[in-house]
Amino acid sequence: GSGSSIKSALFITAYLLPTATLGTISGVLVDRLPKNLVLTFVNLIRVGLMLGLLMAGTSLPVVYGIALLLAITSQVASPAESAAVPQVVRTDQLTMANSTNNFGGLVSQVIGFAVLPPLFLNTVGPRPLFFIAAVMFGASAGFFLLIRSLRTGPVTMASTANAVRNIRAQFAEGWERLSADTAAYMGVIIMVLASTASLVAVTLMPRFATDTLDIPVRNAIFVFLPAALGVVVGLRLVQLLERWMPKAWLLGVAFALLAASFGGLSLTVPFAEMLEDLNPLGAFNPGPFGETTARIVVTICFSAMAAFSISVIGVASRSLVNERLPLEVQGRVFAAQVVLTNLASIPPILLAGFLSEVFGVAPMMFLTMVILVAAAGWSLARAMSRPQPLDNAETHRTTV
Fold first, then answer.
1. Cα 278 from Cα 20, distance rounded (Å)
2. Domain ranges of the chain
3. CA distances from 163 to 33, 75, 258, 385 (A)
4. Burial code of 297-333, b = ≥16 C-beta within 10 A, e = fewer?
5. What's the topology of domain 5-396?
6. What is the mean pLDDT of the chain?
7. Res 16: pLDDT
8. pTM for the whole thing?
9. How far apart are CA 23 and CA 308, in angstroms?
10. What are the strands, taking DSSP E only, across the chain?
């Protein structure tokens, strides 16, 4: 509750570092094995972990260990789910499918973090909640096993083991295929940058609440909760926006909006002063907003804009990869995205956490915006300088 950005930075880094190391292995496994079997196996592991929590009691080391293992399972499940979408829907349904998938994930997180835990903890305790979670993971495993379109031809353990042994070459192949397509490559890079920016924002949130908004950290959730509305609006509108412009352009516009929102957050104080002085028709004396209220209103607007941008980027980026890259490398590409996000986030998170204690939050928000734009521009220039093959996205989409 002290509002320390350093503590937030160290906590997030401690979570990201162990999980980032398994991305290369998970990507190869997702591409080499039937995705329904991968997802079934992952959810069965989660069942076992939930039962472990059920029996762990109040042993904190066991609870933390199981939490880390759950995070590791996500490193396998996330690329598998993303790469599975083109096998269950048509090309013209990819944006809708990815939007629905992300929206379902948002709803499940709200229920899983904000609804069920308080309800169970204040009534029957945590053990029934762990049992229900185990049942739900078990049901998910059964559903994944029954999806026939995710099944592939015979897979030999020898070929899979050989692929894992040559993991560096396998991963390099996936990255090479991604780099050959500028649109898909920039989609992944922009998603990595957007995810990094969101993690930096989470790191700075405690200090932002105390220094800029002058409110306790425990009340910051009420300020940033309306940003969830931006996520929902983005997920609902992305398919409509896609009809107006190509996905690559949509990504660029959403990224520009994200950078602008960080710039706006860095200027919360001057924007709030303008809002304080706003007095239409002289109806208020002084203006309708006080200092703290004006800053909160500005923060809500720009944080909702950032959340909207990130949700649009997430759907458009994934759909671009689904459309333009071969199915047999998509697992590695999405795993690479996770690894890049986790590893690329650690230096700016630590830097923002430490420097915000010295220079304040606003300069760090502005610096984040500058780095975002510079990194995107450098990546685009580098991608454009490479010789590009003829655009033949549809012929690249083959079944595993």
1. 48
2. 5-396
3. 11, 18, 38, 31
4. bbbbbbbbbbbbbbbbbbbbbbbbbbbbbbbbbbbbb
5. Growth Hormone; Chain: A; (1.20.1250)
6. 81
7. 65
8. 0.78
9. 27
10. none
